């Protein structure tokens, strides 16, 4: 017979673990950063889990108030567009007291703070902004995530002296505009010995900021200890990108924006050195590259070696087309085993690139592939490990050849046992008369997917 234990008999430490487990499921999701985990929300008190737990009974209240892990993650919604000046004045001081109260309940546990601020680009607002909320606790903040409308709102934080943020492990600063000048005087990261992840992200496209960015040369950051870096507040030149990577010996994930027309702050001598040697980034596993032009991308790849690279991605919306031949040379020179490729293609022959991607598992090429390449992909001739593919073709005839090859792999030669998990093929045709022919091929796909009894696989064909 089973017996149920009353919560009143549970030890306080076990009850606290249950609360923390529940709190971990009460996650705040932000449209810019995605899932940032559970957090105490300020200034909204009602409905936030730690506050709710304290209203159940006196015992729960005592346990909740004395469990630091319920209070060390704080989300602050600092939106004063919805308030006039009188309301603004009334809200600032109570919010400061709320912050002080929450932090006091976190004991000495490292803090994680998320701030979303939509404020006027005004001196008064900036002087009384959220920066006054976090300044007293900088030495305890391990993770900081800021989303603001203007760099004026983060200047005070960035100008904190070296050594102020000694516990800081990761920092994300997303600024809509005017971040360049604020970074020139930034010193807060210089003495952040625990810093491993740094994201500086501009919401506007890089064209919206000056090309003569101070980054990376003038920005005081312990580059060599970073493992994750996102630097998309403006374009930097390929040479500046090489200098940056040369400093980042431990980098594992990197996202940068480059342009051949960006102003480089590298000296002529440094340029000469870079042209005579290759930049080794030994631990880089994922590169997210945002080039303005194909020329910038080619110049970048020709000078780097990334032996551990397994993922190469161009962000959605980037229009620059990467050269297949340049990529092939880069992959062979680096001796890397690329598992994921997500790029804009070009009008070169893609088959030589496919030949060097023998370990590839996921591929998206935003380009119309020729018939020969499509047949190779369907037959898994060069890429036996390929699981997810997404590409386009210029005619229904090429789609038909792919369907023929895929059907043959699935049924005529079952010993191959393909392990495609997801296939997306888009036919880009400039006239409507191909619709009937497309529907015939789509029906073929639907038919043999119904007959397929192997591993689960998704097949989607589109007509654009």
Automatic annotation (TrEMBL):
SUPFAM superfamilies: RNI-like. InterPro entries: LRR_dom_sf. This is Uncharacterized protein. It comes from Hypsizygus marmoreus.
């Amino acid at each position: 017979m089973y017996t149920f234990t009353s919560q009143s008999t549970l030890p306080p430490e076990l009850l606290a673990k249950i609360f923390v487990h529940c709190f971990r499921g009460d996650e705040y999701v932000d449209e810019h950063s995605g899932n940032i985990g559970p957090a105490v929300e300020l200034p909204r008190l009602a409905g936030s889990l730690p506050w709710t737990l304290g209203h159940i009974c006196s015992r729960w209240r005592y346990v909740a108030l004395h469990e630091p892990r319920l209070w060390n993650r704080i989300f602050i919604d600092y939106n004063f567009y919805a308030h006039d000046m009188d309301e603004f004045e009334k809200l600032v001081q109570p919010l400061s007291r709320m912050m002080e109260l929450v932090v006091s309940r976190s004991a000495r546990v490292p803090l994680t703070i998320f701030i979303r601020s939509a404020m006027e680009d005004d001196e008064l607002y900036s002087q009384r902004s959220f920066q006054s909320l976090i300044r007293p606790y900088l030495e305890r903040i391990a993770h900081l995530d800021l989303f603001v409308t203007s760099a004026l709102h983060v200047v005070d934080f960035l100008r904190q002296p070296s050594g102020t943020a000694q516990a800081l492990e990761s920092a994300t600063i997303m600024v809509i505009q005017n971040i360049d000048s604020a970074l020139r005087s930034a010193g807060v990261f210089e003495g952040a010995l625990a810093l491993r992840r740094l994201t500086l992200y501009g919401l506007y496209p890089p064209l919206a900021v000056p090309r003569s960015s101070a980054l990376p040369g003038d920005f005081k950051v312990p580059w060599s200890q970073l493992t994750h870096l996102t630097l998309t507040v403006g374009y930097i030149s390929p040479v500046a990108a090489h200098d940056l990577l040369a400093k980042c010996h431990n980098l594992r994930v990197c996202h940068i924006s480059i342009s051949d027309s960006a102003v480089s702050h590298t000296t002529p001598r440094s340029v000469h050195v870079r042209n005579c040697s290759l930049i080794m980034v030994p631990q880089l596993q994922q590169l997210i590259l945002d080039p303005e032009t194909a020329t910038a991308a080619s110049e970048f790849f020709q000078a780097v070696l990334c032996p551990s690279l397994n993922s190469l991605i161009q962000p959605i919306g980037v229009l620059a087309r990467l050269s297949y031949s340049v990529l092939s040379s880069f992959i062979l020179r680096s001796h890397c085993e690329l598992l994921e490729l997500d790029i804009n293609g070009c009008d070169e022959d893609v088959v030589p690139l496919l030949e060097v991607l023998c370990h590839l598992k996921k591929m998206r090429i935003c380009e119309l592939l020729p018939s020969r390449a499509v047949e190779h992909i369907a037959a898994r001739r060069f890429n036996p490990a390929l699981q997810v593919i997404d590409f386009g073709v210029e005619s229904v005839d090429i789609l038909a050849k792919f369907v023929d090859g895929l059907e043959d792999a699935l049924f005529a030669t079952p010993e191959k046992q393909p392990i495609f998990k997801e296939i997306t093929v888009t036919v880009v045709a400039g006239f409507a008369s191909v619709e009937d022919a497309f529907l015939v091929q789509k029906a073929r796909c639907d038919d043999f997917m119904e007959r397929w009894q192997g591993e689960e696989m998704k097949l989607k064909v589109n007509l654009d």
